[in-house]
Design a protein that fits this description.
- This protein has 224 residues and is of the alpha/beta class.
- The protein folds into two domains: 115 residues, Rossmann fold (3-Layer(aba) Sandwich); 95 residues, Arc Repressor Mutant, subunit A (Orthogonal Bundle).
- Helix 2 packs parallel to helix 3 and helix 6 packs across helix 8.
- It is elongated.
């Protein structure tokens, strides 16, 4: 599941991205209304976490524009403004929830999961290649009918590979998407993670799905 965070406080945005990524979500960050609108219109997000107070204008306008253009994805407001009329205003504009800062991450996570469950089941909630299946909402992985015991990072890495099945992904891209870091050529974190993932996803099965493209990166695909 893909989430867009529109938040200008870099430390707060990074904290949210790290926490949500650890729970299997793919997360992007925008630091202004304009950037948020651009990403929301051009990318297929499943939910937006939106701050009210942003540098270029207030987050209210993001909801207004997206709803006017027919975007119906869930939007959750984050704001230090806790007055009842602010919460009511945000919901009346078309937001699906409103969470007052400061908040517990566990509550944010619960609210996000609740909003996503309310949405009609989407094809992207279930990813599959050959007999490998990933249920993104329930955070479950199965292959050949057997449940795979994956860590949060392994699940996120596998979800990335499945979403982009057939596409060769560079180590730099993988490290940015899964760990939120710029790739360091002296670090083999991606190779180690792929090796551990293969032991669970590929080694016990005759058909191998995760392939190395020497000098480039990795690809998940079914080869005949």
């Amino acid at each position: 599941m893909r989430i867009l965070i529109v938040e200008d406080e870099i430390k707060a945005a990074s904290y949210l991205k790290k926490g949500l990524s650890e729970h299997g979500f793919s997360v992007d960050i925008a630091t202004s209304c304009e950037d948020g609108l651009h990403l929301a219109r051009s990318e297929g997000y499943d939910l937006i976490v939106l701050d009210v107070m942003l540098p270029d204008r207030q987050g209210w306008s993001v909801v207004q524009e997206l709803r006017a253009e027919g975007y119906d994805l869930p939007i959750l407001f984050l704001s230090a403004r806790d007055a009842v009329h602010d919460r009511v205003y945000g919901l009346e504009l078309g937001a699906d929830d409103y969470l007052v800062k400061p908040f517990a991450f566990s509550e944010l996570l619960a609210r996000i999961r609740t909003l996503l469950r309310r949405q009609p089941q989407r094809q992207t909630d279930q990813l599959q290649v050959n007999d490998l299946e990933l249920d993104l909402l329930r955070h479950r992985a199965r292959r050949g009918g057997l449940t795979l015991d994956l860590t949060a990072k392994e699940f996120q890495l596998l979800a990335l590979l499945l979403r982009r099945s057939g596409e060769v992904l560079s180590r730099t891209f993988i490290s940015e998407q899964v760990w939120g870091i710029n790739f360091d050529s002296d670090t083999n974190i991606v190779d180690v993670a792929i090796r551990r993932l293969r032991k669970k996803v590929d080694d016990p099965f005759p058909t191998k799905l995760i392939h190395t493209i020497r000098g480039v990166g990795y690809v998940l695909e079914e080869r005949h």
